[in-house]
Amino acid sequence: MPSDELNVFGDPLEPCSTTPETGFLRDGNCRHLDRDPGRHELCAVMTQEFLEYSREQGNDLVTPRPEFDFPGLHPGDRWCVCLPRWIEAREAGAAPPVVLEATTEGVLDELSVDELQAYAYEA
Question: Matching Pfam families, A to Z (predicted)?
Answer without folding.
Answer: DUF2237 (PF09996)
